[in-house]
Each structure stands twice: as structure tokens, then as C-alpha cells.
Design a protein that fits this description.
The protein has ten helices and nine strands. The protein has a three-stranded antiparallel sheet with strand order 1-2-3. A three-stranded antiparallel sheet has the order 4-5-6. Strands 7-9-8 form a three-stranded antiparallel sheet, with helices on one face. It is α+β, with helices and mostly antiparallel strands.
Length: 331
């Protein structure tokens, strides 16, 4: 006779309700926690029930409801068959106590910054979430860990932050299995969030433009430059004009290359001789000339050349520009 069962709700969570029969056909009903909350998990619970029933019919084992472990069950009583008596395991310690012990043991073997980061995460969100649950190490299921990840995502954490929590749990449970505190690592069934590289790039750009600024000493220097004697400013202005005019004139001599004289900048935007200006920048590097793609400044098809260097250095760079022009058969 195949074993039957159903999924039932109790206290906001799903449970397996199994019909177990002994050799005389007498039925015993057994309730087992799935570890799943009711909301949005019915199909998952039903799929898990199917696996549980198949395994019981094949092996006589049922899930313990703790960390994905299974155990033999007495069909007469529907209770677990007692395992051989053994010394109390650390699997019975509170999960938070285990994590705090684990991080202290590894303190000497990891970078200081990593230790500080992991410890703050344990003392912060992990403790806030798991302390009210009061779970033992052996009671932490993949479902509980999944729910933790979903919770902190809803609280505003980025997927990149959740990946760090995933790493902590993965390492901690891997050690627990290695030391025989657990039979199964529940993190093997917990998906690692996909890193949001596009968002990270956008946020990095935003951060660099919103928090980066001239240093305090530079700001005071700027005030002095604006309010103090202007004689040196005139000398600098003339020097920049000389560099600009010379570089603009020499760039415009090259067929296929053109640039507009800037009115108040320390750089030129020069038309790239090829459509992909990034490719042009790479070729320039081969001749020890550093230019920046215009697409970085919302100006695709151009490259930026700075002339905030000495007049002599500009002169010395001109032969390299000629070689680059020859590379593209412009001269």
C-alpha cells in the first residue's frame, strides 16, 4: 500500500500530514513541519510532499523537520526509531550561538576588514531575524534561509549585499558539516542571488559624482586664486592659450582629423578617424599617446586630448601623432 498524505496549514505555516499504516493496517497520523510559510508556498509544499512520500515508501524514512535530515520511523507508533545514544552534539546549540562561536574561531585566519564586516552582519540583521525564532543549528532549514534573504531584499538590501550574507551562511554551514555537527548543508538548496552588475555600475557612477568633491585645502586655494593678485593668472592663461593654439593647428593639419578650438578648457575634442573611438584610443596607446574616449563624456566619435602639460611635452608628442596618422593612412 502506497503511503498517502496532504499539506495542511497551522499557525501560518505548512505541515505534511501523513497517513502511516502498520503491518495490521492500523492507521497513525503524523504531522511534520515543512519549514515553509503559507504565503506563496503551496505548490512548493505539495512538491516536497510528493518527494517525502516516495522516499518513505522506499526507505521507511521521514524528514525530521530539522536541516533537511531524515530518520527511520516506527510504523506502529509513527515515532522515530531511537538512534544509538551518543554524546550531545553541537547541532543542538542555538544557531546564533554557533555563528558567534564560528566567527571568533576564524578571526585569526581572515582579513581584519572581512572579520569586522561579517561580525557586524551577524550582530545586525542576522541576530534581529533569528533571535525571535530561537532555532537550534539543526533546525535551520533551506526554507528559513530563503525567507531571510527575501526579507532583507524587501527591506531594501541590494542583491550584492544579500550575496555577502549568502557567503557567511555557506561557509558557516560548510564548517558545521565538516565537523559532523550536521549531516546536510542546508545552503546547498538556497539559491545565490545573481549579482546586479548593471545596477552596481550605475550606483558607482552616481556615488562618484555625488560624494566626490575638491578637498578642503583645494577649496581654500580656489578662494585665494579668485580674490588674490591676478598677475600669475594672466601668465597661466597665456601659457594655456599658446598650448591650445599650437595643438589645434597641428591636429587640423592631419587629413581626416579635425577639432574645434575650445574657448575655455584644458582639453580638445578631436574627431576620431574611425567610427569606434575606443578602438582609436587603443591604437594611440601603442604609440605612447593617452587619449580618452568621447563616449565617456556623451560625445561618441571623438577623443579627448588634454593640453595641461608643458609646451615642450606637446612638441615631443607631435611625431607620435604623425605615426598614428600614418597608421590610418591619413598622411
Amino acid at each position: 500500500m502506497k503511503t498517502t498524505g496532504s499539506v495542511q496549514e497551522k499557525n501560518g505555516r505548512f505541515y505534511f500530514v501523513l497517513n502511516l499504516y502498520d503491518a495490521n493496517g492500523k492507521r497513525k497520523i503524523k504531522w511534520i513541519s515543512t519549514g515553509l510559510t503559507v504565503r506563496g508556498n503551496k505548490r512548493k509544499a505539495e512538491a516536497m510532499l510528493h518527494e517525502v512520500l516516495l522516499r518513505y515508501d522506499e526507505t521507511g524514512e521521514l524528514p525530521t523537520g530539522r536541516g533537511g535530515a531524515y530518520e527511520k520511523v516506527d510504523t506502529r507508533t509513527a515515532k522515530p526509531i531511537p538512534a544509538p545514544v551518543r554524546t550531545a552534539s553541537k547541532s543542538e546549540m542555538l544557531f546564533l550561538d554557533y555563528l558567534n562561536e564560528w566567527i571568533q574561531i576564524h578571526k585569526a585566519s581572515i582579513q581584519t576588514a572581512t572579520f569586522i564586516s561579517y561580525n557586524q552582519m551577524i550582530q545586525g540583521r542576522i541576530t534581529q531575524y533569528f533571535k525571535p525564532l530561537g532555532l537550534k543549528l539543526c533546525e535551520v532549514t533551506p526554507q528559513v534561509l530563503d525567507e531571510f534573504q527575501e526579507k532583507i531584499l524587501l527591506d531594501g538590501c541590494t542583491t550584492n549585499t544579500v550575496i555577502h550574507y549568502h557567503a557567511i551562511f555557506g561557509k558557516a554551514f560548510k564548517d558545521a558539516v565538516r565537523k559532523d555537527y550536521l549531516e546536510v548543508n542546508p545552503m546547498l538548496k538556497v539559491d545565490r542571488p545573481k549579482k546586479n552588475t548593471a545596477l552596481a555600475k550605475v550606483m558607482a557612477n552616481y556615488l562618484s559624482h555625488s560624494t566626490s568633491a575638491p578637498s578642503t585645502i583645494s577649496q581654500h586655494a580656489a578662494i585665494t586664486a579668485l580674490t588674490g593678485p591676478q598677475e600669475d593668472m594672466q601668465v597661466m592663461k597665456e601659457a594655456f592659450e599658446k598650448r591650445r593654439d599650437h595643438l589645434v593647428e597641428r591636429m587640423n593639419r592631419i587629413e581626416g582629423v579635425s577639432c574645434i578650438k575650445p574657448e575655455g578648457a584644458f582639453y580638445l575634442f578631436v574627431k576620431s578617424p574611425v567610427e569606434n573611438e575606443k578602438e582609436f584610443c587603443e591604437v594611440c596607446k601603442q604609440y605612447n599617446v593617452l587619449v580618452v574616449p568621447g563616449s565617456s563624456f556623451a560625445c561618441p566619435g571623438y577623443v579627448r586630448i588634454a593640453y595641461c602639460v608643458s609646451y615642450g611635452q606637446i612638441e615631443r608628442s607631435l611625431p607620435a601623432f604623425r605615426k598614428i596618422a600614418e597608421h590610418y593612412n591619413l598622411v
